[in-house]
Amino acid sequence: MIAPRTPAAGDPDEGLYRGGDPDFMTSLARGLHVIRAFSGVDRRLTIADVSRASGLTRAVVRRCLYTLRELGYAATDGRTFSLQPRILNLGYAYLSTAALPIAAQPVLEELSGQLSEATSVAVFDDGAVVYVARAATRRIMAVNLGVGSRLPAYCTSLGRVLLAAMPPEQATGELAKIELVAHTRFTVTSRRRIEEILAETRAEGFAVNDQELEIGLRAIAVPVRNVVGATVAAMNISAQASRVTRRELLDKSLPLLRVAAERLGHQLAPSR
To answer: Residues 128-175: pLDDT tens digits?
Structure first.
């Protein structure tokens, strides 16, 4: 058996090794990194673009993209590459079998119909929130969000609810790994202030985002707790700040949001 290579310090692939773990497939990890490089706005990327986004060498990226193309997951015009519809099979395997997105969609659609606002359910993943279900009556953000979209946890209502659900020391550790960037003039980038907000969220049971991610966007989120009370996701309502005040979010939206989150949580069994 060939022993796994130990990367040198500064090796672009250093983060993809697991200390000589013989069960860890570095080639698979590289391929997944290449796929994730396409999660930005640009639909077509060059090998150099993917190399910068993934932290992998161009030679590795070239082989991964060649393989993805041969399997029908990517296409190329000779210079740039793009993902193909077959890539959706990877996410659909989760969405079609996981209890959370299946149960969440009708609950979100009903809530969205009651308030005529966008509603979402998300989970925490590596410093970000990942949307697993969404119902939108209109597009309210510059970025068109959908299932699978990722947003930073520290400056979103969904993310703050999920961070607040963690033990404080774990939330502090997660925040320490995140670069805090000011997306608008309202974005809180002080780690101390964010931890204060998380403490308030734990006490109050909800989080409000007031134009911290995008000017003109307000949102309010609550935890989704399963039948044994464990927080497994967060649910939010987002609206245009020009139409909905912060007070209206609290007085009108929050009660309905809590009812919907409780309804969804009662359908979710604890993880085994």
So the answer is: 999 999 998 665 555 567 888 889 999 999 999 999 999 999 999 999
CATH of residue 102's domain is 3.30.450.40
Q: Does residue 224 contact residue 231 with C-beta atoms inside 8 Å?
A: yes
pTM greater than the 0.70 cutoff: yes
* pLDDT tens figures, 95-104: 555 688 889 9
* Parent domain of 28: 14-87
* Cα angle for residues 113, 116, 122 (degrees, 5° grid): 80
CA max distance for the chain: 65
- C-alpha to C-alpha distance for 144 and 67, rounded to whole angstroms: 29
Residue written as token pair 């510059």? 142
> Cβ distance 196 to 188 under 8 Å?
no
Same domain, 125 and 70: no
Q: Which of 87, 117, 133 is the last residue before a domain boundary?
A: 87
Token pair belonging to 150: 């990722």
- Number of structural domains, the chain? 2
DSSP state of 233: E
Q: Which of 40, 57, 87 is the last residue of a domain?
A: 87
Cα–Cα distances (Å) from 81 to 20, 54, 72, 75, 78, in that order, read 32, 14, 12, 6, 8
